[in-house]
# Entry
Amino acid sequence: MGRAIAVILGSTETAQSRPFGALGQALAAFWQEMIRDVVHPYRPEQHYMRGPGPAWRAKYGNPPV
# Structure
């Protein structure tokens, strides 16, 4: 058990000799994506137009009330 913990915590072995090194990197990348999404959420209401634009008004006139 102690040997396994030493390998996980970063012994002198290289990352390629660790059997689960790629899994750890994948989990770290996943965690970073999750944190980024929580800190900077996508808010679509800030990106969508709220009504007809000038090109629509030029083609169709003013919208009915």
About this structure: DSSP finds three helices and no strands in the chain. Residues 1-41 form one domain. The helical segments are 2-9, 21-39, 54-60. The longest helix spans residues 21-39.
